[in-house]
Amino acid sequence: MTNGIVNVNASLETQFASLGINGTNSAYVPPHLRNAQRAASSPSPTNGSGWNDPRASPRGGFEPLRGSHTDKSRGGAFGHNAFSSPREPVSTNDWAGRPSTNGWTPREHRTDGPRESSGLGAWRNGAHVVGPRNPRLETELFGDLTDPSKQHTGINFEKYDDIPVEATGAGVPEPVNAFANPPLDPVLLENITFAHYTTPTPVQKYSIPIVAANRDLMACAQTGSGKTGGFLFPILSAAFTSGPRAPPAETPHMGYSRPRKAYPTTLILAPTRELVSQIHEEARKFAYRSWVRPAVVYGGADINQQLRLIDRGCDLLSATPGRLVDLIERGRISLANIRYLVLDEADRMLDMGFEPQIRRIVQGEDMPGVQDRQTLMFSATFPRDIQMLARDFLKDYIFLSVGRVGSTSENITQKIEYVEDLDKRSVLLDLLASEAAGGLTLVFVETKRMADMLSEFLMANNLPATSIHGDRSQREREMALQTFRTGRTPILVATAVAARGLDIPNVTHVINYDLPSDIDDYVHRIGRTGRAGNTGVSTAFFNRGNKNIVRDLMELLREANQEIPQWLDAVVHETTFGGSFRGRGRGGAGAGGRGRGGNRDYRQSSGPHGGGAHSAYGGRGGSNYGGPAYGGYGVGGGGTNSYGNGGSSWW
DNA sequence: AAAAAAT
């Protein structure tokens, strides 16, 4: 047992605190505000008027920001913004005929404490006025080298050069090889430098010029490939350079009760609250000192607080679908001004039944049509339903296929242990006892119930554990994530909610206490470790209940040059020749099959769009990874040969 | 089969 007893106690306290047991409940603070509140007087970057109306700026809504001295001399952290300055009430109506904001002072503007630079930029007289630097905000956004929980994991760039990328479609632009101007805006480049990013990842090399060329994009890429930057960089860059777009004229409306409506120009949809929150944090980084105000909305958190933040600026909005629909219904958000639409983890969103809401948001509200916006879709896989979505949401898109990250990189050592269900607990205890101190261990289970039971079991055994799953309150979820990140509870028991997308530094061990039945889930889960060039270990408990994943798992282990236990070979053999043949329903995918629909540009085989394939990967042609051509996914849509249940098999 | 997500 290498974890000190002190640590254990601290974590138990935390655990109780998160359950509200010791009565120290404080007001709910959403994750994107925590740091801001901790640094009591540091203004949130979503402060400021942020309303992206160019008409407002020339009227004096913004003051130029040339440097911190200028800013300070203007009198206060928000002196640049006459709109919101308590000292300079403005009587003019702001845009869209809203009642004057005269006298209205947002709370944070009153409590700003010491005067310092806001870190907020503005758009004024057709030019981007870069905000002054704010050291405190910089530490918050870009990390403090002494605090590992705040450091961005960064990306293991060397490894990334090995990842094959293929871009297909008409007129694929040349990939870029560096963060440079052009095509990226200098302000963005500065933020990229602050974030210690040095080289674009393969996704970014392609997505940056593609988006800069105003093209739509369908990218098959998994989390960890740098795709968040892949869409944020080019979108923010274009925003910085071209400035805000005037929101559509609204019918003037008298009366004071009329709520403000936000007109974001970029909308990013993602499946889970934590993921949306994480994207927002990235957006805050890269929007630093610019005129762009990122905002975030998701369920489970106080809607009024989110509304207040939206009021202070909502140019780039990250959202989960449900809460967004809610806000649209309340008339607080309009999509009429959308220029960029991003669907992240699109396959996941469909899995989770979001399709009706997504279609409503994209097609049933006031969002500009497919020709009048730029749409980027990201998905780990490209099954039929995603192809349909792509067909409906994208125009003449470029298809980008990025190889697996988690599995192909060999910095994750994957172990498979044969453990019967009844033995799992004790094996887990042994495993945790032999854990090196300092690292974080993520334990995946299949059910919420199991997550609760297991974390309680671990705590009962004096292990600093907590859990995250969809039946816990949002507050508890965020608390769990926070105590995990900071190492106060270095063991996190999680359901699928944490499998994808979450970027948690210092996860040294991923344990698949229960194996998922889907190999892509497995890849995502183990991908929580071995990031940032660190090595990671993953251990999976396998028993006869996991036969459904065994073939794909074998294939994956081989692909990643991992040791394969002999007994596993035997299981594969048994399931292949012993039991009933498991039809794979994938058009005869052989070794090399990518499962789950693969990630090929299906248009190539039959569509009229075909264009030259572009491969970033010298040695290999396009066909070396990705699924085989799968017959059932034709463009015409006649075949119902979807993957998954072709074979009716449960052993 | 389970999980996730608006209240």
UniProtKB/TrEMBL annotation:
Compositionally biased intervals (Gly residues): 580-596
Source species, domain of life: Eukaryota
Helicase C-terminal domain segment(s): 411-572
Biased composition range(s): Polar residues: 38-50, 90-104
Span of domain Helicase ATP-binding: 208-400
SMART domains per record: DEXDc, HELICc
PROSITE patterns on file: DEAD_ATP_HELICASE (PS00039), HELICASE_ATP_BIND_1 (PS51192), HELICASE_CTER (PS51194), Q_MOTIF (PS51195)
Start-end of Basic and acidic residues biased regions: 106-115
Its EC number(s): 3.6.4.13
Family: Belongs to the DEAD box helicase family. DDX3/DED1 subfamily.
Protein's recorded name: RNA helicase
Lineage of source species: Eukaryota, Fungi, Dikarya, Basidiomycota, Agaricomycotina
